[in-house]
Amino acid sequence: MTAKWGCSMEPRIVKTQFVADLKPGMIADTVFLCADIKSRMTRNGSYFADVKLVDRTGEISLKLWRYSPEVTLGLEPGAFVRVGNVQVEEYGGSLQLSQDTSSFGRSVTLCDVSQCDLADFVPATPRDVDEMTREVTAAVSGVSNKPIRCLLESFFCDPDFMARFREWPAAIRHHHAYCGGLLEHTVNVLRICRQAAEQYEAVDWDVLCAGALLHDIGKVQSYDYDRARAQAAMSPNGVAIDHIVLGMELVARRIAQLVSGCPDRGSCASPCWTSGLTLEISHLVASHHGTLEWGSPVQPATIEACILHHADNMDAQVNKFERTIRESFASGEGEYRYSELVGRTVWMPPRSEARK
Predict the structure, then answer these.
(1) pTM to 2 decimals?
(2) Domains of the chain, with CATH numbers?
(3) Dihedral in degrees, nearest 10, Cα atoms 335, 341, 345, 350
(4) What is the pLDDT of residues 104-114, one digit of tens each?
């Protein structure tokens, strides 16, 4: 393969400057992944390109003024963009880069994919994926109800399923919308549910644990995730059916397979799946959004479903604050700023505190 767009093949790019390191006034001299590009119009009627540049630590906007698509051929989602000697600016509480489109090919260039390590560029969970995976498998092995444990093992001990589950985002734009986000969200919900189970006496932990681990399982089918472009989109199944119904179908199908295909059927000392237990698990998946207007076909009707809904919503909302703080810039004293992700004004701590 030969190099293109003016970048040589050797040596490979060592990325030493990340979005999380940038501050207003700094000079950006690094490579980003283009996750999105939109043509917009200014108030005076001229066009500019709003380019979403990302790396594994966050995102930053590149504004290309007097935009012309013919000048920026190859600048598209999935392209690697080298920004050289461009000053970082602050606008509306967020960091951005700003250049005239005529700079394309000089201060803004494209690099060959073979030069770059994708792991540096895809926005991803800041947590250790292997450690979170071990936490999930430990929770599965700790379930005492054998039918529930068999169900959980059929998912979380399946290497093919886990390869997808570990990588998938939990959403397209809102909470945990990055590589590994689904795993991170699931572990967070599991932890919150565990604390609640210790607080309230009437909770069946095995049932609640299953709900925490399985509530968003339909998202592995409702999203198509293009890791190379750091983009998720609704799959045809996700548009037509949604992750809640897909999750219910996955669970019901797996239970049926376990019952019909179990090699120990008839000899196992533990009672197998009953219609009541199947209904309990299905209800957790069906009701975890809490209200009809939030997409749940039913509202929580058990104490476990009530806890799961609030744990799910709590982690989703807190993650929006986390991402806002990570990806925005505040003054040295901190300040209140409007967050589009949260949808209201939030407190932005000083950057030194935000990164602790």
Answers:
(1) 0.81
(2) 19-120 (2.40.50.140), 129-314 (1.10.3210), 323-354 (no CATH)
(3) -10
(4) 999 999 998 88
